[in-house]
Write a structure and sequence with these properties.
This protein is an all-alpha fold. The protein is built from 17 helices and no strands.
């Protein structure tokens, strides 16, 4: 029953609540929270009667839980505790929403104790991604317009998530989930299933054409190659191949930039055309840089515990730089940089705890790389680090939403499973 509820959570990205002010956020978040609350109630009863179902705490486990504690502390000391706790309808986050993500982490960490559990969990997530991809394809082809619930005319499809950047984040996680199945299972059918859905979501990632996600994946590939070169490669030939492959992301990105003004680029997929426009001089980049400067001023005013969750807007408004309006007529309620956002909202204490999750996760995977003799187990650790890298890097240009929290905290639980095994 609890497992079924967690599987159901993975289908919440398909929900579009047309009758709400924010149809791509509200319905998803409400259903996600209800499902997690029911699962948490049942899990609490399960661990009461069955001690074996209790999570096995380690430093990584406590780092995730303590981050929730920091959120509650900075909420209490912030400028608007009520807003910090509940958030708003547009983002559906708040401390209340993040605590549901942490609850999902605890339940999955304690409940899924076998590789088979995670294979099925990832398979369910990939199955849901098929419909997200189908909806995205429908938005880019007039023949399939009847699939759409909400009309979207942008070249970059928002699918059921409402924005192409969110689609890219979603696809990024699913790519790695498919890879994890390939590495977890030895059966040909499972491996074909995982590989096929990884390719499907790679196509979806390209279709979304989010530059932040593109950069993130290139960085993740580079990190993965370095880890494989150092820990996995057993012979000189493999090391030479990996060393050569290390420059591939740089050459690829440099080649796309070099073709920026060439008519030849028009013959490439739109994702490559978008990548070629990466620059610090674009209006989007300029507003992000201004936001970082404003975030720094806001952080300096309340450096220890911050302004409180969901109160980035308060600090941003107080230190607002009018130059922003010369590039974009928009008002930021997020820093579009997760590190800056956490620093402003939760202060140095919150930022340190947030970064600790990634540091402990990385160190845990490095330990696995050192002590595991199985290549597939080592590659699983490499894959987890790559996913963490991709998520962290793309969040330097974006922010979280309810569905990214679902996938993020699920991935943290999987990392904890590998470290505890």
């Amino acid at each position: 029953m609890i497992t079924a509820l967690l599987w159901a959570v993975l289908f919440t990205p398909l929900i579009i609540s047309k009758g709400t002010l924010y149809p791509f956020q509200t319905g998803k978040a409400v259903v996600f929270r209800v499902l997690v609350e029911i699962a948490a109630f049942l899990y609490a009863w399960l661990i009461f009667i069955e001690p074996k179902a209790r999570p096995k705490p380690n430093k990584f486990f406590w780092s995730v839980l303590s981050f929730g504690g920091i959120l509650l502390l900075t909420m209490a000391t912030g400028v608007n505790p009520l807003r910090s706790f509940w958030g708003d309808l547009e983002r559906m986050e708040g401390v209340f929403g993040i605590l549901h993500g942490i609850a999902l982490f605890v339940i999955a960490y304690g409940l899924f104790s076998r590789k088979e559990d995670w294979t099925r969990f990832f398979a369910v997530s990939l199955s849901a991604s098929f419909f997200v991809a189908l909806y995205a394809f429908a938005q880019t082809d007039s023949f399939f317009r009847f699939f759409q619930v909400v009309e979207v005319t942008d070249v970059q499809p928002g699918s059921t998530l409402g924005h192409h950047s969110f689609v890219a984040t979603y696809a990024m996680f699913q790519i790695f989930f498919g890879v994890f199945i390939v590495l977890l299972e030895k059966g040909a059918r499972w491996r074909f299933f995982g590989a096929s859905f990884s390719v499907l979501n790679l196509i979806l990632l390209m279709l979304a054409a989010s530059r932040g996600a593109q950069v993130a994946m290139l960085v993740a590939v580079g990190v993965g190659i370095v880890l494989a070169l150092v820990f996995v490669a057993k012979n000189l030939r493999t090391r030479i191949v990996l060393a050569g492959a290390l420059i591939a992301p740089v050459v690829f990105f440099g080649g796309i930039i070099a073709l920026k003004d060439s008519p030849l680029l028009k013959k490439f997929p739109y994702a490559f055309q978008r990548m070629a426009t990466i620059s610090f001089d674009t209006p989007t980049a300029r507003t992000r840089l201004i936001s970082l400067q404003v975030s720094w001023e806001a952080f300096k005013e309340r450096p220890i515990l911050g302004w409180g969750q969901e109160n980035f807007k308060a600090g941003y408004s107080k230190h607002f730089d009018p130059e922003h309006l010369t590039y974009e007529q928009a008002w930021f309620d997020r820093a579009h940089n997760k590190v800056a956002e956490v620093a402003v909202q939760n202060g140095a204490i919150g930022l340190a705890r947030y970064l600790t999750i990634f540091v402990l996760g990385f160190l845990g995977m490095v330990r696995l790389l050192k002590w595991q003799s199985s290549v597939s187990e080592q590659l699983l650790a490499v894959g987890v680090v790559m996913l963490g890298t991709a998520y962290f890097v793309q969040n330097l240009f974006l922010f979280d939403m309810p569905m990214s929290y679902v996938l993020f905290f699920s991935s943290l639980a999987f990392a904890g499973f590998l470290m505890s095994g």
